[in-house]
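Slide 14.
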Amino acid sequence: MKNVKLHKIELTEYEYELLITDSIIKEIFSGLLRAAIKRKGNYFLSVSLSQLSELCGFVAAEANHAQSKRLQDDFNELCDYLEGIEYEIKKNR
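Slide 15: predicted structure.
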């Protein structure tokens, strides 16, 4: 089996709470989210590039279906952040 490279993603407590309180994201990424490490108020996820890409898609979908403008904005900002990390990882391969 090929070793999959993991990348550390830093999330604020609020960003992590957005993910963990969303029922769809929590269900699909439960193992990933439970494995998060909390340090100095932030959360660190270890994700593969494919997991990150999939997470970006789900965060974007949740932004599109958010129940409020604020929640939509928050998911959009998180999506932009995660997509930026994804871009940097792909660029530096």
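Speaker note: Residues 53 and 86 are 7 Å apart (CA to CA).
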